[in-house]
Design a protein that fits this description.
about 90 residues, 3 helices, alpha+beta, two-stranded antiparallel sheet, two-stranded antiparallel ribbon
C-alpha cells in the first residue's frame, strides 16, 4: 500500500509541475542557491510545490487544484534560494 501512496504523490507532483509550467510567462524562472546540487534543488522545488497546492474540489479524487505562487515563492526563498529570470 505504501508504494501506491508514493506513486500517487509522484503523479500529483508531475501534474502540478506541468500545470505550473503551463502558467508561466515567456521568461523562464530558475532558482539558485550556492553549493546546492541539482537533485537537492529539485527535491526542494517539489516540496515547495506540494506545500503550495490547494484543492478546489474539496479534496476529491481528480478534482482540480491550484498552485499558490506566493506560497511556492516564500517556501523557496525560506530555503535560501534566489530567483533568476532567463
Amino acid at each position: 500500500m505504501r508504494y501506491t501512496s508514493i506513486r500517487g504523490r509522484a503523479l500529483v507532483v508531475v501534474a502540478a509541475t506541468t500545470m505550473l509550467a503551463g502558467c508561466t510567462t515567456t521568461n523562464r524562472i530558475t532558482w539558485e542557491k550556492t553549493g546546492v546540487a541539482q537533485g537537492e534543488r529539485e527535491r526542494d522545488e517539489n516540496a515547495c510545490l506540494r506545500a503550495a497546492i490547494t484543492a478546489e474540489g474539496g479534496g476529491q479524487l481528480l478534482s482540480p487544484f491550484c498552485i499558490d505562487r506566493e506560497v511556492y515563492t516564500r517556501c523557496m526563498e525560506g530555503r535560501g534560494y534566489t530567483v533568476r529570470s532567463q
